[in-house]
Amino acid sequence: MESLNWRKSSRSSAAGPDCVEVALVGEGAAVRDSKNACGDRLRFGTSGWVGFLAAAKAGGFSAR
Predict the structure, then answer these.
(1) pLDDT tier for residue 63 given thresholds of 50, 70 and 90
(2) The sheet that has 28-33: what strands, in order across it?
(3) CB-based contacts of 45: which residues, under 8 Å, 6+ apart?
(4) How far, in Å, are 3, 6, 28 from residue 31 at the CA level?
(5) Model-level pTM greater than 0.90?
(6) Is 90 exceeded by the pLDDT of residue 14?
(7) Tens digits of per-residue pLDDT, 42-57?
């Protein structure tokens, strides 16, 4: 996944704790923390990505 075209989410804060990058991959997307580009990544298939976005837009996730 190193060769993916990562882009910072428009919802990420400039220097704050919410820094997410997204890369579109074949059938879905990958997500990583832009502060730790070599760290773990999440990879979603198309239906998983659609579900993840719907949950995020509905406020389904909370910061810890």
Answers:
(1) low
(2) 7-8, 20-24, 28-33, 41-45
(3) 27, 28
(4) 14, 9, 10
(5) no
(6) no
(7) 999 999 999 988 998 8
Helix (H) or strand (E) holding 43: strand 41-45
CA 40 to CA 50: how far, in whole Å? 21
Cα-based torsion angle of the residue sequence 29, 17, 58, 26 in order, rounded to the nearest 10 degrees: 0
Residues 41 and 59: their CA atoms lie apart, in Å, by 21
27: helix, strand or coil: coil
Going by C-alpha positions, the residue among 30, 16, 23 that lies closest to residue 63 is 16
Dist CA 27 CA 49 (whole Å): 9
